[in-house]
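Write out the bound-state structure for zinc ion.
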Amino acid sequence: MSRRPSFLARFAPNLVLLLFGPFLGAAPLCAQQHRNLEEALVITDVNVIDVRTGEVRPDQVVVIERNRITTVGSKGTRYPRNAPTVNAKGGYLIPGLWDMHVHLVFGDWFPLAQEISLPLFIANGVTSVRDMGSELKTVQAFRNQIENGERLGPRILTSGPMLDGPKPRFPSSLAIATPDDGRRAVDVLKRRGVDFIKLQSLIPADAVTAIAEEARKEELPFEGHVPDAVRAADMSAAGMRSFEHLIGVFEGSSPAEAEFLNGTKTEAKFLSTYDPARAEALAAILAKNQTWQCPTLVWERGGNLIDVTDYSKDPRAKYVPAYWKDVTWKKMREDVKASFGTDDLATRRKFLDKELEVVQMLHKAGVPFLAGTDTPPGVFIFPGFSLHEELQRFVEAGFTPLEALQTATLNPARFFGMEDQLGTVAMGKMADLVLLDANPLADIANTQKIAAVIVNGRYFSRNDLQRVLQKVEESAKNSRRNPER
Ligand SMILES: [Zn+2]
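---
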C-alpha cells in the first residue's frame, strides 16, 4: 500500500491523540489514517506489569517507534517531547493477549470472519491467535492484509486444514485413511506454508505414526487432539507439541485406557475410573516432554452445560451474524447435546469440577498451559470476549492471576519460540500491548477493563475500540439480509 504523508502532521501533537482512531466516519481502514508510524508514541506514568515475575513497576515511560517498543524506563527517562503522548496514570500495561485455539475460516460455517472475528479480537486486546483449522488460502490472505495495514486483525499462526480420519467430522479438514495419506498431507501443507500441523480425533493409529514421523522430518510441529486410537503418553513421547481440550488425559488416567481407545468414552466412566496414581504418572511424562495443554476450559463449561444455558440474552450476541446463531450454532448445539449420551447433568457438572482439579494437578507437576477458547465453533464462545473468561477459568482452577495471565502472554510466545519478539513488555519487542484501567494481578477479571490496545504499533483508544465494536455490530445486523454470505 502506498504511503501518503500523514494527515496527522497537520495537527498539534495533543490533538493528534484524539484522532488516532482508524475508523473516522465511514472510511475504510487505511494505514494513512493512523499516526504516521515513523513518529514515536509515548506512554507515560504507567504501571508496567512484568508477566515473568509479577513485578509491577510504577511510573514508567514506554516509547514505541514504528511497531517496536524502543524504551521502557522509569520517570525521567528521556523521550521525544514532540511525539504524541498518552498519559496513562493509574493504568496497567500488559503484553497483547493470545487466543491459542481459534478457527478463523471454518469452511463456510462462520461467514464474515473478516468483519466479525478479526476486529472482535482486537477490541478485546487479543493481538495474536493460533488458528487451529481453517481455509488456508483465505487465512493467508487475511494475514497479508493485516501485515500490510489494509485490514484490522491479530497476528495469525495457522495450521490450515486439519488432518482427520477417512470421514472428517468438520469442514476445513483433510481425510486421512492411510499412512501415505498422512505423509502426503504433511508435505503438501509444508509447501503451502502452514506454521504447524493440526490433528483431529479420527485419524487411524498407523497414519498418526506416519504423520508424526513426516512432521518431524519436515520440522513442522504437530499439535491438536490426541487421536482417539492413540494413548496420550505415546503422543507426548512422539513429540506432539500441544494437546487440546484435555483429550487423552482422562483416558490415560484410567485403568480402562485400552477400552477407551476402542470404544465409547463417557464422562461418567472417566470419573468412576479416575486413578490419581496413573494421572500423576501421566503428568510426569507431560512435564518431562513439556507437552503443552490448551484445555479450552470456557468451552468445556459451555459445552457441558449447553442444555441448561440460555444465550439468547447474552449482550455479546449482537456482535455475531444471525447465520452463526440460527444455523451453525443451533445445529452444533444439537450435536453436542446428542453427544452427552448417558451423561446426565449432575455427572457433567462433576466432570467440570474434576477437569479444574486435573488442570491444577498438571500445573503443579510442571506441565505448561496455554489459553485458548475454540471460538467460534465453540457454541456461543465469542471471538475476543471469551478469552477473558478462559483466564478466569484458570484462576478458578487454582492458578494465580499472574499464572493465568502467563497462559495468554508469555507462554504462547515461548510455545512459538518468539519470546524475543513477544510475550512481555520490554525494549526491542513488538508493540502489541493492552492498557488496563485496573490491576489484573489483583483480579484477573480486570483484563476486561481495557483502556487502549496497541497492535503492531497502532494505538486504539477506548473510543476507537468502541467504534470498532459498533462497526462489528452493524456488520452482524446487516448480514441478516445476506444469510448466504
Ligand atoms: Zn478447535
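---
The two ends are 27 Å apart (CA to CA).
The chain has a mean pLDDT of 92.
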